Amino acid sequence: MNTSTTTTTTRHPLHGWRRRITAIGAALAICAALAGCAAGGTSTGAAAGKDASADGGTPTFTGPYADEFKREYDKAPTDLARGILRDGRITDAEIQEVYDDYNTCLEPYGLQATYSADEGETVAQYRGSLSDDEQLDIMKQCHAKTDAGIISSLYVSMRNNPERLDVEAMYRATYRCLVKHDLLPAPISEDDYISTMTAVGAKGDDAGFEANIKREMEFFSAYYQTDFDGNPNPNFKYGQNTDKGRLFYECTSDPLHQ
User: Fold this and answer.
1) CA dihedral in degrees (113, 117, 120, 126; nearest 10)?
2) Tens digit of pLDDT for each residue in 7-30?
3) What is the residue range of the signal peptide feature (predicted)?
4) Where are the domains positioned within the chain?
């Protein structure tokens, strides 16, 4: 039996609050680099959805994530996805439902996925011999058909950032958490961290975004098992089985609660 594993997490651009499902690009590279990158609670919801009519018409959403719920509800590809989004809340059970649907899409290709809010998505090939690029292409197609990535990403965002602080505020919270726990490998100011190592600093430029992610991984290389390109990192020291590695993961995944 040919078994290989592809790991993809919903990171934006890293993990935790920054997590988004992606099939290619910087987010995938950085997921694999963390050594060992379950959701608590049974429901996540900061928006409320109410049916516009008694027969279950288009719901009206309120709360910090109302815009996201409305946008994703309007373009949801399946009745299952719309049903999950309709009430403005996402439960653990609903995450399992949408990933069951995703796995149904993957199964003909010999792929199966597991998902947790903290570790993201892992896809294993249990049959066949697809290349990594072929696997990623199928995963991308199945996410588009099921909305599993969109729904799980929204779930994580609401769990870790219930008030929907803007991205820069979350990056600043991450920096302060790293400082608080003495995790900076060398002195760097908060503004320099924001401008040179985050998506905010890239100002929407794709090349700048990639450069900032590479720079962040190099600066914090002691916490990454591989480099940006997936090569073994000789500077890796602190996995999540160490205090520093655990704190780094917690600061970068959920800085508001550390």
Assistant:
1) -20
2) 443 333 344 444 332 333 344 444
3) 1-38
4) 65-160, 167-253
